[in-house]
Design goal:
The protein has 270 residues and is of the alpha/beta class. 27% of the residues lie in helices and 26% in strands. Helix 6 links the parallel strand 6 and strand 7. Helix 2 runs parallel beside helix 4.
């Protein structure tokens, strides 16, 4: 599904550390709030066109991507950005050399990301677009997952944790950026209840306290290391300097305030 933004478009130069990204975006995203299609989608599924706005946590996450250049510059690194919206973290990852899957529940966002890829002279053959509602299972596991400003309702903590449990490759990691928000406070505990590890990184560029309205936090989510017993159950156990593979056994209201609007996941910049 997709909306259809028909208003003016602007190109904004966004400074991400030493890197400048030319980001194509709707100049008047509020126009979408009066779109009958958006209103109908909102009544049916709580949808809001958050993809059309640039959110501060996207910049924080893009800066974190720069700090992980070694991983993202590897030739075979595949990145999934969920709820990509305008796609700033994914654009930075693409610039660093990763292959990036930009995903959002509203495919209209892809039109703007594609134009941003062209504006920055990036390799479009290393970008893929995927209409994805992260209440549904992912198409395949990914080694690196990005998401920003996704946790604007408490119920989304469980939805996102479940998605990451399914989508994260065995040795992968996910980075989820969020501003200090009551709705996100329970996320680390929910992640752990899904068998994943969660570390909290405070935005180094804005060392804010948890009560600050300006700082952002990044949740780094990984899978716990497997014990030999778990590896044996999975069909592999350590063997000398390598691995021995074992045979598998047979047998809602239209308001633009994320902390007050219930919404379906996967359709925000952020």
């Amino acid at each position: 599904m997709k909306t259809n933004y028909q208003g003016p478009i602007e190109v904004e130069e966004v400074k991400v550390g030493p890197v400048v990204i030319r980001q194509v975006r709707p100049a008047d995203p509020d126009q979408l709030l009066d779109d009958p299609w958006v209103e109908a989608w909102n009544r049916r599924d709580g949808y809001m066109p958050y993809w059309a706005y640039a959110w501060p946590s996207a910049l924080v996450l893009a800066e974190e991507c720069l700090r992980r250049e070694t991983i993202l510059a590897a030739a075979d690194t595949e990145v999934l950005e969920i709820g990509c919206g305008l796609g700033l973290p994914g654009l930075v990852s693409l610039k660093l050399g990763a292959r990036v899957v930009f995903s959002d529940v509203d495919a209209e966002s892809f039109r703007f990301v594609a134009r941003s890829i062209a504006e920055n002279g990036l390799d479009a053959t290393r970008a893929e677009f995927l209409t994805l509602d992260w209440r549904q299972p992912p198409p395949r596991p990914f080694p690196f997952i990005l998401g920003s400003d996704l946790l604007y309702e408490p119920a989304l903590c469980c939805v996102l944790a479940r998605f990451l449990q399914l989508a994260l490759a065995p040795a992968g990691q996910a980075l989820i950026a969020t501003p200090p928000r009551t709705a996100a406070e329970g996320f680390p505990a929910v992640v752990k209840s899904h068998g994943l590890l969660c570390r909290i990184h405070e935005d180094a560029s804005n060392a804010a306290s948890p009560t600050s309205s300006n700082g952002c936090f990044i949740y780094e989510i990984t899978r716990p290391p497997k014990s030999d017993a778990q590896k044996a159950l999975d069909g592999t156990i350590p063997f000398g300097n390598g691995t021995r593979h074992l045979p598998s056994p047979s047998g809602p209201s239209l308001k633009l305030h994320k902390s007050h609007t219930e919404s379906s996941p996967g359709h925000n910049e952020i």
